Amino acid sequence: MNTTPEKIDLFTPAQVGPYTLPNRIVMAPLTRNRAGEGNVPQPLNVEYYAQRATAGLIITEATQVSPQGVGYPATPGIHSAAQIEGWRRVTDAVHARGGKIFLQLWHVGRISHPLLQPDGALPVAPSAVRPEGQAFTYEGPKDFVTPRALDISEIPGIIEQYCSGAQNALAAGFDGVEIHGANGYLPDQFLRDGSNQRTDAYGGPIENRARLMLEVTEAVCAVWGAERVGIRLSPLQPFNDMRDANPEATFSYIVEQLNRFGLGYLHVTEAGKDTPGAAGPAFDLHKLRRIWKGVYMTNAGYDLARANAALAAGETDLVAFGVLFLANPDLPLRFARNAPLNAPDPATFYGGGAGGYTDYPFLENP
Ligand code: 8OZ
Predict the structure, then answer these.
(1) Region 326-341: what's the mean pLDDT?
(2) Hey, CA dihedral for 174, 176, 179, 180, is it positive or negative?
(3) What SS3 state is found at 326?
């Protein structure tokens, strides 16, 4: 047959694992620091996610798999019965409005502080390398401390934390999970050589630095089935004092290895692309799209025109929008109509109540 393929844009349905998404507009994972007591999702969070259910897919804010995985105030967890119950209300509300929602599984590793850790313990990391900068604690900002390097005997316990987080996400009614492999948190700390100075099977050559991330992926896939699992990477992101001697080699390797699972998608944030060299020598991220054999999601700074251009050019299959989705609960409708967008208010991004969270106006009554 000699048919011309239709031009793909944000409103072309897309397949992610077993799900047919009605559009390619993904709500990016966004830390908002508005969980309730005990890091439990509360009714305010239910309303926020329900408001955004017209996304093709919602990825939740980063969510701790264990008390050791906590690194910020008022971020939600997925390790207690109350948290599962809180998230269940979120997934029910999103599903009632026809949406799909994946939970982002998170362990912060060294990006924490004894004030946030059980029994005031040191945060754990691949190596005792202190990141530059400050942790946000309930007592205000505090300089990061030198973390405790995990003993190799503790690695199965880390994998187990992801495994139970994944099981709890299933119990909470999510449609899938995204492994947070980006932005300088634990799996990324193992992957990039700026934070990994180990000399055992989890450090040194890239085959070893990638091991933890691949073992986490295998464990999470065993719970969910690979097609309902995504993973997020941030090859050029310097945030959280991250760098790598050769990001092109490191990330080409991990993407090649991730191909073997048959994941629902690969999510690559381009964050850091505009500060070339900050996280190591820059490279063309399109290379990762070419290596990857599945659904590809990109992110960072896209607007309607740039997203449609990237889709039409085959550079990506899905686009995740962060700030635009935060400020526009009905972003797909606004894009469909080419309507004006609400302006985001950075002062209310992290922490607070309904202001700057659930009170951004809709074009029409939802
Ligand atoms: C901003 C503030 C705190 C955490 C990330 C989870 O960068 C985060 C985060 C972002 O992935």
Answers:
(1) 98
(2) negative
(3) helix
Of all protein residues, the one whose alpha carbon is nearest to atom 9 of ligand 1 is: 31
Cα-Cα end-to-end distance for the chain: 43
Residue 32 has pLDDT above 80, yes or no: yes
pLDDT per residue as tens digits for the range 266-276: 999 999 999 99
pLDDT of residue 4: 56
State residue 77 phi and psi, 5-degree precision. Answer: -115, 175
Q: Where are the domains of the chain?
A: 14-348
Q: What are the structure tokens assigned to 207, written together? A: 């085959």
* CA of residue 23 to ligand 1 center, whole Å: 25
CA of 216 to the centre of ligand 1 (A): 20
- Structurally, what CATH architecture does the domain formed by 14-348 represent? Alpha-Beta Barrel (3.20)
Distance between CA atoms of residues 29 and 34, nearest Å: 14
pTM: 0.98
Give the count of beta carbons closer than 10 Å to the beta carbon of residue 105.
29
Atom 8 of ligand 1: nearest residue by CA position: 31
Q: Atom 11, ligand 1: which residue's CA is nearest?
A: 183
CB 60 within 8 A of CB 103: yes
d(CA 259, CA 100): 24
* Element of type H or E holding 15: strand 14-16
Distance 184 CA to ligand 1 centre (A): 9
